[in-house]
Design a protein that fits this description.
alpha+beta; Immunoglobulin-like; 3 domains; four-stranded mixed beta sheet; disordered N terminus
Length: 361
């Protein structure tokens, strides 16, 4: 029995590949979808209108000179469009900035533009979201990289994704502006603005408990003890008068400026019916808490943070400093009352509350 044609058509070999013919729409999409943005400038619009006027005059009069002029105008439009497009192709742009960003403070960023083509690029502009004016790169040689500095200001704290970078140019005549958008996926955390207030006072429980605030060894001004030098001691701690008397190196053990850990408690409970004014005062309280935490760290204290029910244990060092600032950068008001967390009596507590309505923040 001979298999039918339909059977052979339906069942094919597993290794046989069937290619569907590409549709006309998909082919046109691949041709015209280049990612190049085109904008006609005011000069270009006037030039196009003038070309239309001359073309109408040439058609009505049959003047060969006008036809020749129309040809020159059309050729200029074509050449300007092609050159301006090639001037923004094969350009690689990047944005580099500092590791720490604070709300409201200008930060220095570097824009790098690399020419990956075989011909020079001229009069290239880079527009950054949030920047007041574009950055001009007059000429970039093939295979080279140029850099420019720009100051950016982030008005609010929190997570911030770098704006997309628009690279465009109107070279050579300025009839068209053609460019390409380069997406930037760099996410940064903008720290709250630091509001430095008066020097914080220690918790009154220190005097009540009768504990000495200089028990812990640190880098304070007060000397706790004198001892013989050992390997690894800081040469700045050498007590030279005693060293001269005893004929051997004597080291000063200094006390820390704060003998107990510090805890900054920020009020995050949002009262029912609070409006935009409360949000502004809450942001001011966040800045106050950030400034207070940095002051305590600079004094040599181990600083912790309590945000509602979230506790960051006391610590010190650059990594802990970044953790404090990151927590304050991402803190948000809470609708419900926070869960009470017991604080040991050996910890200095500094409360930062949202200022009442009508009081200057």
């Amino acid at each position: 029995m001979t298999p039918s044609r339909g059977f052979l058509t339906t069942f094919r070999s597993p290794s046989e590949t069937v290619r569907e013919p590409a549709s006309t729409a998909s082919r046109l999409k691949r041709i015209f979808e280049t990612g190049i943005l085109v904008r006609v400038t005011n000069l270009g619009l006037g030039f196009v209108l003038m070309t239309l006027v001359v073309a109408i005059g040439a058609t009505n009069t049959g003047n060969n000179g006008l036809y020749l002029l129309v040809s020159v105008f059309l050729g200029t439009l074509v050449v300007s469009g092609v050159v301006s497009r090639r001037n923004v192709e094969r350009l690689l742009v990047s944005l580099e900035g500092p590791a720490e960003l604070f709300a409201g403070e200008p930060a220095r960023f570097t824009v790098r533009l690399k020419n990956g083509g075989r011909r020079p690029r001229r009069a290239v502009l880079v527009k950054i979201g949030g920047a007041a004016a574009p950055i001009l790169f007059p000429r970039i040689e093939p295979g080279t990289e140029e850099s420019r500095g720009v100051d950016l200001v982030f008005p609010r704290r929190g997570r911030r994704v770098s704006e997309s970078l628009l690279v465009y140019s109107g070279f050579p005549i300025g009839l068209f502006r053609k460019g390409r958008v380069h997406e930037a996926s760099d996410e940064r955390i903008v720290y709250p603005a630091l509001r430095i207030g008066p020097s914080p006072r220690p918790d009154p429980r220190t005097a009540e408990c009768g504990e000495t605030r200089t028990r812990r060894q640190g880098r304070g001004a007060e000397i706790r003890n004198l001892r013989d030098a050992v390997f690894g001691d800081d040469p700045r701690d050498v007590h030279w008068p005693q060293t001269a008397r005893q004929g051997k190196f004597i080291i000063k053990e200094r006390s820390a400026e704060e003998g107990r850990d510090a805890l900054v408690v920020l009020e995050v409970h949002r009262p029912p019916g609070a409006g935009a004014s409360w949000d502004l005062r809450f942001e001011a309280a966040v800045s106050d808490a950030a400034g207070l935490a940095m002051q305590l760290l600079a004094r040599g204290s181990r600083v912790g943070l309590l945000l509602g029910s979230e506790l960051l244990p006391p610590g010190s060092g650059p990594a802990h400093r970044r953790a404090l600032l990151s927590s304050l950068a991402l803190v948000a008001p809470a609708a419900g009352a926070p869960r009470a967390i017991p604080v040991p009596a050996t910890v200095n507590v500094f409360n930062v509350a949202v200022s009442p309505a009508g009081r200057a923040a």
